[in-house]
Amino acid sequence: MNTMTTTTPETATTVLDASGVTMRFGGLTAVRDVDLTVKAGEIVGLIGPNGAGKTTFFNCLTGLYVPTEGKVRYKGTVLPPKPHLVTQAGIARTFQNIRLFANMTVLENVLVGRHTRTKEGLWSALLRGPGFKKAEAASHARAMELLEFIGLQDKADHLARNLPYGDQRKLEIARALASDPGLLLLDEPTAGMNPQETRVTEELIFAIRDMGIAVLVIEHDMRFIFNLCDRVACLVQGEKLVEGTPGDVQADERVVAAYLGTPFEGAPGADEVAEVEAAEAHSTTRTEGETQ
Ligand SMILES: Nc1ncnc2c1ncn2[C@@H]1O[C@H](COP(=O)(O)OP(=O)(O)OP(=O)(O)O)[C@@H](O)[C@H]1O
C-alpha cells in the first residue's frame, strides 16, 4: 500500500461537492443520483466497468454536460455549466483520448492552458502594450516552470506530435496545470502506458497533490488506483455502488462481481439479467425437450 498517501483530516476543506448528479440521454440514464466529494489534499479514484458512466460524470463536473438533476459545487459555489468558466473557477481536466495541438510546440501547448489566467484583453494583445508584454513574460515563465516540473523543459520547442506517447500524456497534464487549478480531473491518465510510464505518472500525481492540488482520477488499472488513492468510488451502470478506502473497495465482493460481470443481489440491472437468464434457461429446456 502507498506510504506517501496523506491522511485527510475530517475538517479539511471540501473542494468538490457533487450531489445527486443524474445525467440522462433520452431513455438512457448514464449517471444516476451520484454524490461525490473531494477534499483538499486528497486523491480520489473513480472506477467501474466500461460504460459505467465515469466519463459522463466527469463531463457533468466540467460543464461539458448540464446534469439533468443535481448540483456541482467547487469550494462551496455552484459551478456555471460552461467549460471555460469551470476552468476559470479552478477545475482542470485531461481527456481519455489525448487532445493536444499536434502542430504546436510543447511550450505553446502549455501556454494555451494559461489563457484563462491571462487578464490582458484583445486591444492590449493587438497593440502589444507594456501590460501585454509583462503578462506574456509571466505566462512564459510559468509554462517553463511547469515543463520543468514534468521533465519536458528540454523539449519545449519540439512539436507535440513528435513526442513519445508517455510524454504527450505528461504534456496534457502540464497544460491542465497551467490554469492553476485547485482540482485536477484525470480521465484514464495511464491508458496505453507501459509499467515504467505508469510508475512515472503515479509519482507525478503524488507531486501534484503535494503542490496542494486535489485530484480525481478515472482509471481501469486497479493496481495503480489502489496504490495512488486515499479514497475510491465504484460506479456500476451509472450508480455509485461502493465508496471507501482502497482496502475496503478492493475487498468488496460487489466490486469484484461488477468487474467479473457476475450479478449480485440488488445490483443495478440485476433484475434484467435474471429475466434474461430465466428466458434462456426456459428456451434451452424447450430445445432439449424438442430433440428427444
Ligand atoms: N453523448 C451521449 N449520448 C448518448 N449516450 C451516451 C453519451 N455519452 C455517453 N453515453 C452512454 O452513457 C453510458 C456511460 O458512458 P461513459 O462513457 O460515461 O462510461 P465510462 O464509464 O466512462 O466507460 P469507459 O470506461 O468505457 O470509458 C454508456 O452507455 C454510453 O453509451
UniProtKB/TrEMBL annotation:
<dbReference type="Pfam" id="PF12399">
    <property type="entry name" value="BCA_ABC_TP_C"/>
</dbReference>
<dbReference type="Pfam" id="PF00005">
    <property type="entry name" value="ABC_tran"/>
</dbReference>
<keyword id="KW-0547">Nucleotide-binding</keyword>
<dbReference type="InterPro" id="IPR032823">
    <property type="entry name" value="BCA_ABC_TP_C"/>
</dbReference>
<dbReference type="InterPro" id="IPR003439">
    <property type="entry name" value="ABC_transporter-like_ATP-bd"/>
</dbReference>
<keyword id="KW-0813">Transport</keyword>
<dbReference type="InterPro" id="IPR027417">
    <property type="entry name" value="P-loop_NTPase"/>
</dbReference>
<dbReference type="InterPro" id="IPR051120">
    <property type="entry name" value="ABC_AA/LPS_Transport"/>
</dbReference>
<dbReference type="InterPro" id="IPR003593">
    <property type="entry name" value="AAA+_ATPase"/>
</dbReference>
<dbReference type="GO" id="GO:0005524">
    <property type="term" value="F:ATP binding"/>
</dbReference>
<keyword id="KW-0067">ATP-binding</keyword>
<feature type="domain" description="ABC transporter">
    <location>
        <begin position="16"/>
        <end position="262"/>
    </location>
</feature>
<protein>
    <submittedName>
        <fullName>ABC transporter ATP-binding protein</fullName>
    </submittedName>
</protein>
